[in-house]
């Protein structure tokens, strides 16, 4: 009988200890996520006159960013600040602060900003990693500005991502359900560590050809190796690569040109929407990833590229004089 009472008492003690531990963990999670959200700011950008990017991104842009440095350094998605003339930061206490561009990285898609006045109440967030995430893990997505909010989302998975705008990363984070105000949004794990920066809304976050609306986030794992380089040079070495000026899609194992940017190398060479790209310098391509990797494997961003294309019923070899895209854009003050 005494033994039974002792066992019952021990069991009750264990339950209480677990409840206390669970409560303590929940409180720690709430505090971590609250701190993380206070580091998220709104961003408003006006593009410079004559900016090429205004055609597709608009002259006025709005999104979010997150403070990652003790000096107020802000990480955002690069297309927001592309060819910016003016940049404004909206803080959580409703202040509007001017900022300057620090870096724009074509290869990853990240952008860095620094406010010109002191940010109050924003503690820099630690950088986490997507490596240990599992499908179904709960994450917090956070946005800034007047419509800033937090929302819970879940991990769908990580996988390579090819963008139609001559963009590829080896690992992108996909989540669902989606948040609409995704540009530069921050996504955090339950420890309040930053995992990624919002880039896109996607219709199939699973990548399996079924409808699953979600978001693509650029993982901060890609930032860590180049952060110092970006702050010093305004760009990473991997961003100095050939650019043609094509918007493309993948169709049945072929790369199809959807749009040709005006006055781009592809436009000058005579490429047209509807063309099928079959090979780069004689090497056949069957996917966007394959196309980009063969194009970017060239030792210099400037130089002639031989594209084998199908224009209508005619197969042609077209010579394109590629350029370093960073030289074609209006640089924001600071870079």
TrEMBL record:
InterPro entries: Chloro_Bact_Ser_Proteases, PDZ, PDZ_sf, Peptidase_S1_PA, Peptidase_S1_PA_chymotrypsin, Peptidase_S1C
PROSITE patterns recorded: PDZ
Keywords from the UniProt entry: Hydrolase, Protease
Plastid recorded as keyword: no
Gene Ontology MF term list: serine-type endopeptidase activity
One record GO biological process: proteolysis
Segments forming domain PDZ: 232-290
Family statement drawn from the similarity comment of this UniProt entry: Belongs to the peptidase S1C family.
Name by which UniProt lists this protein: PDZ domain-containing protein
Native species: Ramlibacter pinisoli
